[in-house]
Amino acid sequence: MGNSHGHGHHRKFRDNGNVPFPDKTAAAPSASQPVPPSIYRTQIPTSLTRTPEMANVLPYPHVDSALRALAAQAEGFGRSATGGLHGPIYFVTSLADDGPGSLRDACRKKEPLWIVFEVSGTIQLGSYLNVSSYKTIDGRGQRIKLTGKGLRLKECEHVIICNLEFEGGRGPDGDGIQIKPNSKHIWIDRCSLRDYDDGLIDITRESTDITISRCHFAQHDKTMLIGADPTHVGDRCIRVTIHHCFFDGTRQRHPRVRFGKVHLYNNYIRNWGIYAVCASVESQIYSQCNIYEAGQKKIAFKYLSEKVSTYRISCCKIHALLSCAFFQTCTLISYCIIVFFLWA
């Protein structure tokens, strides 16, 4: 899936405690200065060996903790997502859109659940599948494809989505994964997304603390939108980390950002159709250790002026701009550093 594409051939940035944006509890930076580094922390148990201490944390200690150790591996703003860590395992036994043993049946339940699959195949969704809080959808060990519609994370928190395929979503407002409104602590990992009528991942309406990692995006136009409306100032709270993703010939929005704080690192973006990354309306983007390989279109970063306020790239450190890729600059960039180097 997306975790195996395009990342083995360039030097990696590792999360060593230095990150570009502060926690919400930190003092607000000056509006005229780039946002300083902070520290990623997680309190999720990481031991793969069952201990008396873990038995006090996990109400189902008889379940192999190696399965649940996934919850400790998130980096970035979505690092605190616990998913269904503290709930029982739900086994999906049916590829039906709904009914007993289906994915939809599991996702609508109110209690925490760690959802795994006993079957492989395609789930044809007739409508958005709403995911409630404290769920892990863990596709590891099977091959699960969602088609027709996508997942909707609406007013929920602590959701982990791992190892799913999304392809062929149809209809107006048809997104692969739609995160809105007011959702938080979300981690999407090792997923493959392509060919939806609207976006592959949309993060809007005050949804925050989200990580997208090791995903493969292909055969699509409007890939990822963060902040949809230039008048919705509530989206200033949005914080998203995108790392180790492969944007494989998708046309635009890798991502397209309004208001939010976005950290991009160790991503590979190639052969885009319009531009790679677009910033506007107070957005702050920290691009670090990414590869931008242009095809016929050469604009790697695009800056759009919209009616509300302004935007900036708070810091941009790029390992390589390939095939004549370039930055489309403007006078509103307050701080931008481009770093080139050769690697073995």
Automatic annotation (TrEMBL):
Belongs to the polysaccharide lyase 1 family. It comes from the Eukaryota. Residues 1-40 are annotated as: Disordered. Residues 1-13 have a biased composition (Basic residues). Pathway: Glycan metabolism; pectin degradation; 2-dehydro-3-deoxy-D-gluconate from pectin: step 2/5. It is found in: Secreted, Cell wall. The keyword Transmembrane helix applies. SUPFAM superfamilies: Pectin lyase-like (SSF51126). Keywords: Calcium, Cell wall, Lyase, Membrane, Metal-binding, Secreted, Signal, Transmembrane, Transmembrane helix. It comes from Salix purpurea. This is Pectate lyase. It catalyses: Eliminative cleavage of (1->4)-alpha-D-galacturonan to give oligosaccharides with 4-deoxy-alpha-D-galact-4-enuronosyl groups at their non-reducing ends. Residues 85-298 form the Pectate lyase domain. Its main location: secreted. It is an enzyme of class 4 (lyase). One of its GO terms (molecular function) is pectate lyase activity. Binds 1 Ca(2+) ion. Required for its activity. The chain crosses the membrane at residues 320-343. Its EC number is 4.2.2.2. Its cofactor is Ca(2+). InterPro entries: AmbAllergen, Pec_lyase, Pectin_lyas_fold, Pectin_lyase_fold/virulence, PEL.
